[in-house]
Structure formats: C-alpha cells, structure tokens
Amino acid sequence: MIDKKAMQQMLSYVRRAVYDYDMISDGDRIAVGVSGGKDSLTLLAAMQGLARFYDKHFEVVAVMVDMGFEGADFSSVQALCDEIGVELHIFKSEIKEIVFDVRKEEHPCSLCANLRRGALHDATVACGCRKLALGHHFDDVVETFYMNLFNEGRIGCFSPVTYMSRKDITVIRPLIYAPEKDITHFVRVSGIQPLPKLCPNDGNSDRERVKQLLYQMEKNDPGLKMRLFGAIERDGVDGFKVCPRAVRNPRKKENNA
Question: What confidence tier does 250 reach under pLDDT thresholds 50, 70, 90?
Fold first, then answer.
C-alpha cells in the first residue's frame, strides 16, 4: 500500500520538475522506463499519482526491457502496476548474452547502457508513446557531473529534457529534485519490493565509486551536493536552469528552525 505522506513528498519533487521544465503536454502518453529498481518504481508510482490531479491530462504506461538474466522474476513489478492501475509492457532482449556471453566485456557498463537505452527507446515507440520518463534523481545529477569531469575532463551532465530525433521521442527526468534518501524512504514505507540485482558487475562501476566518494565528501562537508547542484543550475549545464521553485540548500531550514 502506497504511503500517502511519503507520496505527497515525492509528488512535490515531481510536480516542481514537471512544471519548471515543462515536461508534460496535454494528451501525452508517457512510457516510464522501469528497471525494477527503487528509483524507477518510485517514478512510476509518482507519475501515476500526478496524472490523477495534474492540470494537463496525460496517460502513463510502464515499459521494461528484459535483459535476459536467468532467474529474473517481474511479479513484484506487475503487482505494483496492478495496485496503481498502470499497464506493464515487457520487451525481451539479448543484451545479457551479447555483453557477457558473446563479447565477454571486461568493462561492460558502457556497452550495456547503450544497448539498454536503444532497446528502451524502441519499446517506447512500440507502446505508442512519444515521451519516455527515466528515474534519474538529484544524486544522479551530481554523480553524473562528477563522472564527466573525472572520466572525460569535461563539464557536462544529462539533461532534464532531451529530444531524441532518431526515434522522435522526448526523454524527461521528473525525479531530478528528489534526493535518493527520500526515494529509499518512499519505497520502504510503501512496501514496494525492488527486483534483486542480477548483473554480475553490480557494485563495481564508475558510478558506484563516485557515489561513495561523494558520500564521504558530504559527510565531511554537509550541503556539498546541494551546492554542486546549484552550480549546475547557475551555469546552465546541459539544459539545467535556476528555477524559483527548485529545491534549495537545506541548511537554510536548519538555520530557521
């Protein structure tokens, strides 16, 4: 059962992002890319919740790409979709076989991500959708910024809204204001069961290393992530902008308490 108070908190993040970046148009049919992890399941529930009262009418469907890992069981995702009243479409792929069995990639994350992204775009179109919502959250924004800086020596991030001309779809990221800790809380109190992680490379990626680095930096310097996010906004990195309704430094709350 979705926790109402936690849902209200999550909807406040999603509503602000959708409003600030004009992510939704009247009549949209939006595919939510569902991996089965906590982020995408939270996004799915929040988008369906938003659809019930948002001033622009839109429809939500859940789209999954079956990577081909043995033992994958999507019943918990289906249960959530049944609870909130969303169609679930699962598309089979051979990504696991290509990456791990055929190519035997020593560093598989980049190839896997590219193949998964392409499959998800194709699935979006197959479902009759022209918008794809992905579950990248506040912490992902900061981590991606750092990864681009460390690995490629450039200032960059993913964009809140991206038009993909090859498939004629628009990718939106409504969770960009939602901290990961709040997503974790939402899933826990709502009894949502994320799928177990079956990838053999899980926990051994560049993103995980950057995540741990930022965790330690934040412990030593509270508010660091919020200031980095603010810098991304102020400099207009890849479509980000300073929005008056956006989240701000939590230290202000502490000082006013």
Answer: very low
DSSP summary character for residue 148: I
pLDDT tens per residue across span 21-56: 999 999 999 999 999 999 999 999 999 999 999 999
pLDDT of the residue at 83: 96
Q: Would you list the DSSP string of 180-231? A: HHHHHHHHHHHT--PPPP--TTTT-SHHHHHHHHHHHHHHHSTTHHHHHHHH
Q: What is the DSSP letter of 194?
A: P
Q: 169: Cβ–Cβ under 8 A, 6 or more apart, which residues? A: 121, 124, 125, 129, 130, 131, 132, 163
What tokens does 247 get?
């989240």
CA 126 to chain centre: 21
